[in-house]
Amino acid sequence: MMDLYMVVALAVLFSLLYGFMHFCADVVED
Amino acid sequence: MGVLQIVVVIVILLLLVKPVGTYLYHVFSNEPNRTDRWFARTEKGIYSLIGLKKRGGMSWKKYAISFVLTNIVLVAFSYIFLRLQKGLPLNPSGIGNMEETLTFNTVISFMTNTNLQHYSGETGVSYFSQMAVMTMLMFTSAASGFSVAVAFVRGITGQKSVGNFFEDFVKAHIRIFIPLAVLVTLIMVGLHVPQTLKPTLAVTTLDGQTQQIAIGPIASLESIKHLGTNGGGFFGANSAHPFENPSPLTNVLEILSMWMLPASLPYMYGLFAKNKRQGWMIFSAMMTLFVLFLGLNYYSETQGNPAINAMGIDSSQGSMEGKEVRFGIAQSALFTTVTTAATTGTVNNMHDTQTPLGSITPLTLMMLNNVFGGKGVGLVNMLMYAILGVFLCGLMVGRTPEFLGRKIEAREMKLIAIAILIHPLIILVPTAGAFLTNLGNGSISNPGFHGMTQVLYEYTSAAANNGSGFEGLADNTSFWNITTGVVMMLGRYVSIIAMLAVAGSMIKKKPVPETIGTFRTDNGLFTGILIGTVLIIGALTFLPVIVLGPIAEYLTLR
To answer: From chain B, which residues contact A within 8 Å (Cβ)?
Structure first.
């Protein structure tokens, strides 16, 4: 069960980074 | 004699900077050069194997996505291997599977080039894990960082594109890290560093007791550990262990291994910018800050511990607590300064037992995170401060700031502000949070001002992707494993993505012709401005917490 929590945590962190990448793209495109 | 040892190593480094920097430029400039005949065939085989037929330039966003997705795949494999290592081959000592939160921490730690270790290598991981997870990630995380740095340099120097991540990633392995790692491994074996797959030795001591002596494939890990500014040791004692670092000669080899590539990147940048003075300007700023903090550490450690001196104990050797006699103060101080400047995190002495003022050096270098810095990211961070310096000067004289002939506008400054501010945010907030809970407080082994520094050091090391620790902190708990794991992730990827976006923004701009009013960024004046910018931003964000930790501890010892 703990493995599931850890894998979900990793997935959430990488998803946040993906969102941040889109935020940066919006900044670049003004 | 101690100063002479330090000067000799710095002179050797200076002699290496130009040839190594030139080689790096030839590797990544994608122009035909002499190294092609040695490596091109191997690279073509890999490109056809992974289906990379067209190696055209990517947009910054595609480059960033390729970088992150590659890292995700490597994290997934590593997680599975560590959780199943008990049943996998090459486990002669029968080491069990790694605990879940520790696995979470370890895979992030090695993928982000941090190598923060909440386990002890000789008892926590099998030979298979040491090779297939730790050593593999040491290569790939270093190559990832290098690729990002080159992409950023291409962006701000106005190349056609930021490049192709997969091509850069393969080239970094084939032309830089693998050849150098093989060379350094062979030298290490020649200098008596073990390289074997035999199980732990059982020996009988002089008083008839049986003792277990851990051995293993150490030399191959040791080489890339330093070349890739990774820092994760085969043993818990890291490079203080005689099997990892048996002599002053191996100590110098390890220092140069972790320092050579980060120190050569500014020269490579100068070649990309078609103005070597730009590269030397960045290098001079880095070296000035380095010598400043090296001097602080060396002086503090040679003065000894004031509390022990007050007891009348001979302190002529300096503060030798936690240090190896075979290295002494000079080689310990130099190692500490290089490992935290280049954000390697390997240690040949225990930072937890350094004098309070001496410990300011590793802490501050990780807080600045741009004095040579880790594989690639140090150069990116220093260039980020250079652009900030240009922006501040532009504000003072009322001109639109320009860097390398391209205008710096609001969008670049927004991204740079994020990249600069994320670092103190992910250090100071978790540090404060740890003191609010027993989960954090309970791990401190030395309450008081030193305990404050223990917690601060842990999060600073995680955020800077350094990986060294004040090892008095009992950090192998779910709380520390998860919180430092999150900090390492944010410390690595947020600034890299933001700076790739800056590169993508700059590459689209038309160059502005240089005029008599153009603010030059390749002279001594700008080097001074850059150093001032780094120190002022660093002091504004971190000086209060340094006062609460090591400076307060120093005042109590006087």
So the answer is: 60-61, 64-65, 68, 72, 75, 79, 83, 100-101, 103-104, 108, 411, 414-415, 482, 485-486, 489, 493-494, 497-498, 500-501, 504-505
E-assigned strand segments in B319-473: 402-403, 406-407
Which tens digits make up the pLDDT trace of B43-59? 989 999 889 866 789 99
A3 touching B, CB under 8 A? yes
Residue ranges with strand state E in B59-98: none
- Tokens describing residue B195: 């390289």
Structure tokens at B179: 């050849």
Does the pLDDT value for residue B558 go beyond 70? no
**Mean pLDDT of all residues in chain B?**
92
Nearest beta carbon to residue A20 from set B75, B485, B494: B494
Burial B219-252 (b: 16+ CB within 10 A, else e): bbbbbbbbbbbbbbbbbbbbbbbebbbbeeebbb
Residue B375 has pLDDT above 70, yes or no: no
How would you classify residue B358: left for phi > 0, otherwise alpha for psi between -120 and 50, otherwise beta? alpha
Q: B192: which 2 tokens?
A: 């008596």
Phi-psi region of A9 (alpha: psi -120 to 50; beta: other; left: phi over 0): alpha
Neighbours of B385 (CB within 10 A): 22
> Residues in chain B, how many?
558
Q: Please determine, for residue B424, whether its predicted confidence score (pLDDT) is greater than 80.
A: yes
**Which tokens hold the place of B539?**
């002091």
Q: Which residues contact residue B183 at a Cβ distance below 8 angstroms, ignoring those fewer than 6 apart?
A: B223
Say how many C-beta atoms besides its own lie within 10 A of residue B523's C-beta: 11
Three-state DSSP state, B84 = coil
